[in-house]
Amino acid sequence: MVPNPMDILIVDDEKSIRLTTSLALEGEGHYVETAEDGESALKRIKEENFDLVFLDLRLGDEDGLEILT
User: Which structural domain, as residue segments, surrounds residue 23?
Assistant: First the structure.
């Protein structure tokens, strides 16, 4: 367990990557949420403040860099 757990959002269109990454981070004591596309990610970001966002740069037809702007 980490002394200061973070709220983390994982954004990836591949379910297996979202699952394995979230399991690893939760195992370390962090709070993790996931989103499978840019629209879902932006909605979650508006609802909650995350300490860290892991963002896939290639989300199917979406460009991860576009989501950042």
Answer: 7-68
